[in-house]
Amino acid sequence: MTSEWILDLSDPRATLELTGGKAASLRRLAAAGLPVPGGFCVTTDGYRRFVTSNGLMDPIRRELATIDPATPPSLLEEASQRIRDRFLQAPIPEEVARSIVEAYCRLPETDAVVAVRSSATAEDLPEASFAGQQETYLNVRGEEAVLEAVRKCWGSLWTARAVSYRARQGISPDQVALAVVIQALVPADAAGILFTADPVTGERSQALINAAWGLGEAVVGGLVTPDTYVVEKATGRLISQQIADKTVMTVRVDGGTHEQPVPNERRRVAVLDEGAAAELAWLGERIGDLYGMPMDIEWARQDSRFFILQARPITALPEPELPAPTGWPMPNPRGMYMRGSIVDFMPDPLTPLFGSMVVPAVNTSILQLMARLAGKEMNAYANYLAVINGYPYISASYSARQWLSILSMMVMKMPYLLRSSSTLWKEEALPRYREVVAAWTVKPAANLSPTELLQGVNELLQAVTDHLTVLQVATLGVAPSSEGLLTALYNKLIKRQGDPEVATLLVGLDSTPIRAEKSLYDLADWSRQNPGLAAALKDTPTSGLKSHLAESTPPGGVDPQAWEEWHRRFRAHLDRYGYAIFNLDFSQPLPMDDPGPMIETLKLYLAGQGKNPYERQTVQSERRECVRQGLESRLKGPKAWAFRKLIRWVHTTLPMREDSIAEIGLAYPVIRRLLDELGRRFVESGFLADPGDLFWLEVEEVEQAAQLLEKGEAAALPSLHDKIRQRKALWKARKRVIPPLQLPGKKKILGINADAFMGVHSGDQEGKTIRGFGASTGQVTGVARVVTGPENFDTMHPGDVLVASITTPAWTPLFTMASAVVTDIGGPLSHGSIVAREYGIPAVLGTGVATQRIRSGSRVTVDGTQGTVTLHDAEPEKDLAEGQSQPSG
């Protein structure tokens, strides 16, 4: 039963694009042998032919040109009604009408009674349910009645609720079309909804059934309180039932349906017995297995036989909460594991794809680098990076012989590293990294096969880790060494009473985070030259400005040329600084993915609230040079020589360290683009429900799926929905714990006090005072703002105390607002301390527990000189950072 405008519901060409979500789902169900009423579909081509032949698209665009989520309902309803009136008055093209009538007449029953249902191209999707947005017409009989119902369905694409919903979802009028499903009507004696997981608790082992007498419209429309049954899916056992007083039922009447009272003798009678509920739950389990995810299913029953009318993914299903881990089993029970070095860039549990790719990549890179430095194989580094409870740890599980080999190599190579660190990074590691990134940047992702996409991710991630391992010895290692030596020399041999702290000698330097700040300040300064533009930037909400950026349209009243130039300059800023990472895990978005924090900083400058970074840097550098010259003038002999050497070295290594950290994410825009394309193809094949689910697969699973997809064997792809769900729940459980900084916990490592470089042990943090490293001097009392990541950057207000797990260069926009900084991870030589000193704000880092103990909205006193945070008794406001977000694409 096919034509240019018609497809049978069992036709394999019944895809989302051609027949809409409802029909594509019914085709899939029918192909799997499930009891779906027979029928056909009027394709989206038929809808588009109707719209084109009647010239409807231009009036639609005009009516909706000013519609957005904030449009008053009355105006929205008026625009919607004018569009639908045009649809109801427009004739169906003769060739389309003829095809519909011929298909209707071929149905098995003469003058068949049918259900006419809308099937949109943007409905029944895992990420957005459009349930109830378009119309359904039941008990339709006869050719003219069917044609009229089809026309009404097409018009229902433009109801006020459908238009409003699509506006909130960001779907433009040109993106949607409507197919229409025409099926034999099931003259149901009972109907309802089946959820293959409990939609309230998220429990996946149970099915929940709603059932009422008559057709299903009373249940779907919420006109009746249905019976509720909970069934254990594995056994079919009826766990519980609530038999409602069912007062209303939907029945067939001439030309449609009608709600009428349920006879008194049936109102409190169970619609389903235990056997029927078990049979329905079994059907639901088959459908859930077919789709690989929990489903929302409409069903009907006629003479004890069940029919499936519709199935769509359950949206916003809560995840069952797993208990947080309590033990920390070490891979080597006699080994030693530490959270430090590059692990500082991975404060959260690793997502499965990143973890399964980065651990072997880092271990390969470190083995190669150490072999190069030592001139021989260094097998001690074979398992350098380990994962415990999802958190990465640096392994120091070395034998006495391996320790001796490592220490002797470090002693021998340290002079070389101190001399060559700049060359090693700037002239070797960074150019190699840029070369790999450039090679993959020019390759359009859409033109690559699934295995080529994965190959690109592998090559880019290896380039990331090669660059990262060089940083450990060339910048991340050398910069703290230089600062530590200068600090020791200054405090022990040079500093006199009245002299400033050593931090005075470390500020006013230029680095990528500071240049990024100055770039935004310059953009704000340029914007002031156009008062209309500056006013719009200040007054338009950040969310609105992001929409204008995405759509390349200026805010109202702004000169288009001025906006275009501003957009170009802001885009250049994002291209240069927008790839700085928040987190090494590539599942996390980048600043360029959500420029909201940068826009907030820009608005701060436009409002005259932010400090001029040029003036701040000038004041700091002039004071630094004044102090340096004064010290050099009074020092003599070896002290003078050592001081001059060290100060030059520090002024080279500290900015280089910040520059190198900022470059870590250079490959990430390309990696995320390739993974997004691969995830999109997995969704198209039915393997995944959402492109972001790709991050929850192991690399071996992705490799297998890519190979099958490339061979055209998508049907052989296994369902991993349950695994993905379990991994997400496990990640959230692990996120609730604070990973120990050291396993096993020891006060000394190789005779050195561990607290000197590992931070405070979380178990020691009790009472109202939290201890950490005093990384930037001064004392501030203010409102704490716990920020878990870019997803809640917008909760930060000027003057707040920034409380975070860790900060990287991508966090720098928040420093412009912060009065102080407190972190779980880090120390006096980390990024957070360097930036806090540049901004002249107190910082206490490496507390281990700040994000757990401090609540957003509470008052705290941060003493960067003593390295303490005092918690006050003020009742915290609602904790905006309490809900932990999880990674997505």
Structural write-up:
With 889 residues, the chain is α+β, with helices and mostly antiparallel strands. Among the domains are: 1-185, 2-Layer Sandwich (Dna Ligase, domain 1); 507-622, no CATH class; 759-871, Phosphohistidine domain (Glucose Oxidase, domain 1, 3-Layer(bba) Sandwich), CATH 3.50.30. The chain is 45% helix and 15% strand. The protein is built from 28 helices and 27 strands. Strands 20-27-26-22-23-24-25-21 form an eight-stranded mixed sheet, with helices on one face. The chain has a six-stranded antiparallel sheet with strand order 9-8-7-6-12-13. It has a five-stranded antiparallel sheet with strand order 1-2-5-3-4. α12 (400-441) packs across α21 (637-662), α13 (450-474) runs antiparallel to α22 and α15 (512-527) packs antiparallel against α18. The two termini are 41 Å apart. Residues 123-132 and 874-885 have low confidence and may be disordered.
